[in-house]
Write the structure tokens for this entry.
Amino acid sequence: MLKVAYFPGCSLSSTAKEYDVATRLVCEDLEIDLVEIPEWTCCGATTAHITSELTAAALPAKSLIWAEKHNMPITSPCSACFSRLKMAHLNMEKDPNLKKEVEEVTGETYNGKAEVLHLTRVMLEKYGLENIKAKIKKQLKGLKIACYYGCLMTRPAEVCENDRVENPMIMDNLVSALGAEPIKWYYKTECCGAAFSLTKTEIVRKLSGDILKEAKTCGADLVMVACPLCHSNLDARQPEISKLLKTDLNMPILYFTQVMGLALGYDYMDLMMNKHFIDPKPLLKSKGIL
Amino acid sequence: MARIGVFVCHCGTNIAGVVDVTRVAKYAETLPGVRISVDYKYMCSDPGQNTIIDAVKKYNLDRIVVAACSPRMHEGTFRKTIERAGLNPYLMEMANIREHVSWVHSDDKELATQKAMKVMEMAVAKVRRSEALSKMFASIEKRALVIGGGIAGIQAALDIAGAGYKVVLVEKEPSIGGRMAQLDKTFPTLDCSACILTPKMVAVSQDPNITLMTYAEVVEVCGYVGQFDVKIKQKAKSVNSKCIGCGVCVTKCPNRKSLSEFNEKLAPRKAIYTPFPQAVPNVPVIDRETCTFFKTGKCKICEKVCPTGAIEYTQQDEIIKEKFGAVVVATGFNIYDHSNYGEYGYGEIKDVISSLQFERLINSSGPTDGHVVRPSDHKEVKNVVFIQCVGSRDESKHRPYCSRVCCMYTAKQAMLLKDHYPETQSYVFYIDIRSAGKNYEEFVQKAQNDYGVVYLRGRVSKIYERGDKLIVKGADTLSGAQVEVEADMVVLANGLEPKANAKELAQLFHMSYDQYGFYNELHPKLAPVETAISGVFVAGCCISPKDIPDTVAQASATAAKVCALFSKEKLEVEPLIANVNQLTCSGCETCYNVCPYSAIEMEDKEVRRGDMRHVAKVLESVCKGCGACVGSCYCKAVDLKGFSDRQVMNQIETATTELSTND
Amino acid sequence: MSNEKKKDINVVGFLCNWCSYAGADMTGLGRNIYPSNIKIIRIPCTGRMDPMMIIEAFHNGADGVLVSGCHPGDCHYSEGNFYWRRRYPHLKSLMEHFGIDKRRFHASWVSASEGKKFAEVVKKVVADVKDWQENG
Amino acid sequence: MKYELQLKNIKEGFRKDVERLSQQKISNCYQCGKCSAGCPVAYAMEYPPTMAMRMIQLGMHDRLMSANTSWFCVSCETCTTRCPREIDIAKVMDTLKIMAQAGKYKLSDNEIPIFDWIFLKSIELTGKIYEIGMIGAYNMLSLNPFKDVFPMGVKMILKGKISFIPHLIYNPIEMIKNIRMFKRIKKKDRERIYEKNA
């Protein structure tokens, strides 16, 4: 059984509870043991690295150290958390001085051995696409999915590792494996506005609007994401965006574990899809998936 | 006791600006054996050299040390100087106090001066043990090898042959012509590339002094200037000399599975093919990788249709050994592979094409007969975006250099497009326009003013497809605006890089090359077509990116160098070679085994009366003076003239002692 | 800091004429600064390196020795640097056996175009020798 | 717009501060404009990233720090990923914000600094983010108390997306450790930004 240190992140215990639930369900099915890091602290998100470089490294360091101590790869379903964990790891590797300071403020030593993986990579690379295929109960035939990666799981290039920076394919490959059709589009890694959700909302509306518009133009039925931040910008702000663009976008936004959950045979309520602002029920019913 | 003269050069302020040269000269006077020491502004100038000659006569000097620049720069100069003064040229040593001292220790003048004194002292120590050496001569094989049949190789071959010497021109592809044959028109005159190139190609094939070997590669090189032993692999063409070039085989060949290299993979080509209609020689070759017969044993259509019975499936690769006195390397360039640019679509967007692809598209003998259409759907284009500096000036892609020709050919391509299709609109994204050359700046201005090409100063960040259009997201830094252009086609100005196997070829000749694989000239300014290997010359884009006029000029320069070499009856060679003291040689044969040139011979000789022994002997005309034998001799019987054990030991001893005057 | 002035370290560098010596010239052309502790001896090829020369250098009191030649495969004389490449590890372990700390004896490959690299190599060698001298 | 170049801000001062804290070689920038071309928020910036880089090169801190440029950077790292000169431009933008928030240069935005302060306070005190408290506090402090309440906020609460109880680190020892860590970080940051140690 694959044991992985699990860093859910703040959003997954509140605004993105459904992501957490779906993730745990799917991992249980795939026999991936998610060991939640006890007493994890927030990764600091964008705020930390624009306020203090040291905070940005020290906050994730605690979780990295725990994972290293317990000899497990560390993962987070949230792209922002993943990015912060990975960047903290890489920055400490690049800058020994920073590492020294982090060790001083946390009072613990880090040997730089933690393996930070995004949840998609844990599933597709550690667990294996073929193994996932073997578990599928229901093919998601006829569903056109726009895979939206966002910034934080692909950039900068060091974070991306095995995938391509400009046109990543990891989620597209997953979608194909589930029997659905990944659409070809070029807004996969455009920014949704991310952390500006509260502060500079008008930017979020514009950027997320562009993404939703492009997905619609390219013929997507739904947008699949791997980040609660992207989700809240694309989903919770979608009514406002629709109003702004004077069209009814009505584009359901699902987490990738929810889409996997559908293929593994879970239903609407198991995956807490009722929590979304844009209800995917009519779409999924029309495709015969629910 | 030796009578040594030390001459310290200021090199203007190059040395004197950092090193206290008078102190160096003063210190020299305190060294044993030094009779006179002088410092002078420019030692290599005429008066400087005369100072040395006068001093030799006046003080009856027998050994000279010149503390100046690198011996790689001026050793030859000063050897000649003291020869004029009547001394043996090998009784001179240079102390490198410029490249190795003043230029690299300018941070601390005191330490630099002390080091200069020490470096000079080491040279004095070495020259004390120097011996007079007599000149050696070697014969010259007056045939030249030219590698690469592009415009550089063609020009060099024609010039050398024109002077009456025999030339072998080796080309890897089935035809000569190279990159220039692929181009449509040339900047800034807009004359047709093929029209000015093909007469030269024909001249090569008709010149009785030139032997043309196409579909061939150099595989092994031994020897040295005057006597290069070269092995050339003639790949099997599967077509013999009976071929009259009628082309029936090509027409009838049913196999269209490969893509034409000459047309930059824009069109298929047959398994039996000539790269282009004007090919020289006009003899097709069979590509055995794709030919149906070679893969399945069935087909043989070409053999059936050939009117002269020229198809020969049984032909084998052949290794041909030849001797040459000099070599011209002109292997040219590849364009940068833009599939490394993810933001420009990883080379997967069909209508994002390379500059060479554009040349083929707009060329009337190209795959589309000169129609500029989109490779994806063969539709004509309206808006075309040109992006400069793709694989140039880009550190993140490990190509930080400027490729020199892209600004110009982009302007040319935009103009040609407008000439062909007046209703099209071109946009050029550039960083800086580099148009240094006769009539070049005027040419770029013309593109902007007369042809209405819109120049935008900024790199493009992303290209993506939306429907059948390409969205180009760029910027114009001059106005500070983001610019988005909806284009039908994007042409990338791919930078120039060396051929993929440039390094392997360099290693055959032991030429040095830079981190990209461009060959190093002997001196970037004063010996731009020579290499560190005497007798090997370089021309064209294998040294660095350059345009056609510069390439042709360099090619002719190599020809002049080759002819100058061949005009001598005998070649003077450095006598810095190994010699064996047969009295102490134990006959162990280690040196015989390590010598890379087989310059050691074992002989049974009576070294002393009644002492018959198996001993080593150096073949003087073969030895190149690498010293591998010296380093491996167990009984110190082998030594190397000019770098003898005694000389080096003296240097080591001096290097490790403190300066004697500083108390 | 002791009052006695410490003797500045002294490194002897043996550079092959075709690559590293030319590379060191390139360092000068590019005006890359490096420590002046190194004294350079020009040799035709690293294949010429007689182990006695290195022993002699240490015996005479050199604090460090650097031997630098062409990259493997790029030797001007085809294979001279291969001989050196095989000789070096043996010599290095022998030197350690003699009590010469491994930080004092270095080999590197620097081509004629790698001026900057040569400066880096010298800096590294001098730093290593300093480390040995100060920390033992 | 005439600008009097201040040599002290080129050779030292502003430019050196940016270079030191971001560990990026600003002189590497040759103004190709690729960062501006790909920036998703450049349309809203007073100076696009390319120009910001130039202003750092010329030490024009007064102009750059009173502009919205760095505050509108959304940290998507598109510029960093594509920069042909391998400059981490996003990190340079971070550095500008860090310096402004530390009070070393002019602070020209208030939304983000307020948000950042609340956000980090939340982590400092609870180890995690207390969303409703954070949003409430932010709306209060930014003098826009009803921002996003209707309909989004209400809907969120109805869907159970936002909880009223803060998620705390339950272990009080860990919490004290956490608060102490923040104290130490603050000290070190000040040293770093104001070069007190060096």
Remarks:
- The CA atoms of residues 28 and 85 of chain D lie 6 Å apart.
- Chain D has a mean pLDDT of 87.
- Chain D touches chain A through 59 residues (CB under 8 Å).
- The two ends of chain D are 37 Å apart (CA to CA).
